[in-house]
Automatic annotation (TrEMBL):
<dbReference type="Pfam" id="PF01313">
    <property type="entry name" value="Bac_export_3"/>
</dbReference>
<dbReference type="GO" id="GO:0005886">
    <property type="term" value="C:plasma membrane"/>
</dbReference>
<dbReference type="GO" id="GO:0009425">
    <property type="term" value="C:bacterial-type flagellum basal body"/>
</dbReference>
<feature type="transmembrane region" description="Helical">
    <location>
        <begin position="51"/>
        <end position="70"/>
    </location>
</feature>
<keyword id="KW-0812">Transmembrane</keyword>
<comment type="function">
    <text>Role in flagellar biosynthesis.</text>
</comment>
<keyword id="KW-0969">Cilium</keyword>
<comment type="similarity">
    <text>Belongs to the FliQ/MopD/SpaQ family.</text>
</comment>
<dbReference type="GO" id="GO:0044780">
    <property type="term" value="P:bacterial-type flagellum assembly"/>
</dbReference>
<keyword id="KW-0966">Cell projection</keyword>
<keyword id="KW-1133">Transmembrane helix</keyword>
<dbReference type="GO" id="GO:0009306">
    <property type="term" value="P:protein secretion"/>
</dbReference>
<feature type="transmembrane region" description="Helical">
    <location>
        <begin position="16"/>
        <end position="39"/>
    </location>
</feature>
<keyword id="KW-0472">Membrane</keyword>
<dbReference type="InterPro" id="IPR002191">
    <property type="entry name" value="Bac_export_3"/>
</dbReference>
<keyword id="KW-0282">Flagellum</keyword>
<dbReference type="InterPro" id="IPR006305">
    <property type="entry name" value="FliQ"/>
</dbReference>
């Protein structure tokens, strides 16, 4: 296995990581921003008010996009594992 293959696998892995993590991260970011604006507007600074909606949003995204995330990661892992014999010999 030469440096080009290692860099290719690393780059592809980081791309898959960003693609799989993006839906959850963006959803939690938007929910957090919305709750923060609501808290600033109402001067209601309860710590659970910012935590609970983020958790609900994260669980909802996992329920909706979880199968897609899992299949994407499994496909990538299969490609990596299938390339091992060619890299060894």
């Amino acid at each position: 296995m030469d440096a080009t293959q290692v860099l290719t696998h690393g780059q592809e892995g980081l791309g898959i990581l960003l693609m799989v993590a993006a839906p959850m991260l963006l959803t939690v970011l938007l929910v957090g921003l919305t709750v923060s604006i609501f808290q600033a507007a109402t001067q209601l600074h309860e710590s659970t008010l910012s935590f609970v909606p983020k958790m609900v949003a994260a669980v909802t995204v996992m329920a909706i996009a979880g199968p897609w995330m899992l299949s994407t990661l499994v496909e990538y892992l299969q490609r990596v594992l299938q390339s091992i014999p060619g890299a060894v010999g």
